[in-house]
Design brief:
By secondary structure, the chain is mostly beta strands. The chain has one domain. It has 5 helices and 28 strands. Strands 2, 3, 5, 6, 7, 8, 9, 10, 11, 12, 13, 16 and 20 form a 13-stranded mixed β-sheet that branches. A 5-stranded antiparallel β-sheet has the order 1-21-19-18-17, with no helix packed on it. The chain has a 4-stranded antiparallel β-sheet with strand order 4-28-27-26. The protein is globular.
Length: 432
């Protein structure tokens, strides 16, 4: 927590010193693209299932923390930098592929896998974010898990899974611990929820709930010790580098954070992330989880839970970092989702319109919502056998073929068909 406070102070000082001001947020209409039918302001009542409502996000900026070179230099003493190919050659766990008799019910279901028995039943770790991509000739899924215990807080781990051939009997994978460099040759865990991931180039973006998005470099993975000492330690211990028994660590290289001068209602949560490559510029998607039975979001109107906002952040196609102007990133567009309990987002790749999305929600114990600015939602509900229970992060393949998702598990079930943790993909066209 001390790190967060210090970071916020640094950002506020930097903004003041640079002569920049960040305007406060106020209700206003956003100018929509031609053909968009939905307009609205944050003052109006919201309706569950209504079209995406335009949101004025001109008050919001992200600050590049700019630790790219510093954090990378801190890790040089830990050992040689490894890339994903080295990890894919050292996968140590097998997750059985789902069959016709044990997969969850989902419209357009095509295939998937479950985790090994230990990962299906553990209560210490819970799956959250998901993204996917290609490393060399290997198709890869990456899933984030958050640690549920507080002492010690092991933070977030990711699972790197080879999903190249889903006709095999099992998917091989390995867990890697995410870490933040703290000084030369040392690092610590990242106590976050791991609610969302997005993969651009060599960079893995992870949602930082209160502050923005952290960035990790997939070419900077390090091997650490798996000795008995290291099973209960993090960072450098004597002559060893430890990561609670994990063989590999993936270090943070920088972060994009909301300046401390930006407060509610302008300041959002970063509950989940997604990736959109439909337009001329690649986009990092971020959104807010709002619970319809808990504290409302700033623009919920009279119905708590519906005011979660969805943002588009432009990505530089050359560097794969967010596009900055004087170190600041502005959202390209934003909407209010009119849906509660949203856990993930993916673009509808079967259309070029950048105003349509799938939202993954734990509403109704599990749902997939097809939403846009021009029409009320289409809902695929777990209770009707149309989608899996407790879905989290999602990834839509650029070809418009498959929609991947991960589930966090339902009521302690280890049965894939009735709510156990799974990773699966469905046919995008069947859901469109």
């Amino acid at each position: 927590m001390a790190f967060k406070k210090a970071r916020g102070l640094f950002i506020a000082t930097w903004l003041t010193g640079a002569g920049l001001t960040v305007a406060g947020c106020g209700p206003a209409l956003e100018q929509e693209e031609p053909g968009d039918e939905a307009t609205g302001s944050e003052q109006q009542a919201l309706t569950e299932g209504a079209p995406l409502t335009a949101h004025d996000a001109s008050c919001l900026k992200l600050q590049d923390q700019n630790t790219w070179s510093t954090y990378a230099s801190y890790m040089t003493g830990v050992g040689p930098a490894l890339g994903l190919p080295a990890i894919l050659a050292d996968l140590n766990r097998a997750g059985p592929v789902l069959t016709s008799t044990n997969h969850p019910a989902a419209v357009g279901y095509k295939g998937g896998f479950r985790w090994n028995d230990g990962d299906m039943s553990t209560t210490d770790w819970v799956p959250q974010g998901l993204t996917a991509g290609v490393s060399g000739s290997t198709n890869v899924a990456i899933v984030a898990w958050h640690y549920t215990l507080s002492s010690p807080d092991k933070g977030v781990r990711i699972s790197v899974a080879d999903i190249s051939d889903m006709s095999l009997s099992a998917v091989n994978y390995r867990h890697i611990l995410l870490v933040r460099p703290t000084s030369s040759g040392n690092f610590t865990t990242i106590p976050e929820h791991g609610g969302g991931l997005a993969w651009f180039g060599n960079y893995l973006y992870m949602a930082d709930t209160a502050d923005g998005a952290r960035v990790f470099d997939l070419t900077q993975i390090r091997e650490v010790s798996t000795s008995t000492t290291c099973e209960t330690a993090i960072g450098k211990v004597g002559t060893e580098w430890c990561a609670y028994g994990y063989k590999y660590v993936l270090p943070q290289v920088s972060a994009y954070v909301v300046p401390s001068t930006i407060t509610s209602p302008c300041r959002p949560k970063f509950s989940f992330l997604g990736k959109d490559t439909r337009g001329s510029t690649d986009v990092l998607l971020s959104g807010e989880y709002c619970n319809n039975t808990g504290t409302g979001c700033p623009y919920d109107g009279s119905t708590p839970g519906l005011g979660g906002r969805l943002y588009r952040w432009p990505v530089d196609s050359t560097t794969y970092r967010l596009k900055t102007v004087s170190g600041l990133v502005a959202p390209e567009r934003a909407w209010i989702m009119n849906e509660p309990n949203v856990q993930g987002v993916a673009p509808i790749m079967t259309t070029t319109a950048t105003t349509s999305y799938w939202l993954s929600s734990t509403r109704y114990s599990g749902a997939l919502f097809k939403v846009s600015t021009g029409a009320s939602r289409t809902a695929y509900l777990s209770g009707s056998g149309q989608w899996a229970r407790m879905p989290e992060g999602m990834h839509a393949t650029g070809s418009g073929t498959n929609l991947w998702t991960v589930t966090e598990g339902y009521s302690g079930s280890t049965s894939p068909a009735s709510g156990g943790r799974v990773v699966f993909f469905a046919d995008q066209a069947s859901l469109d």
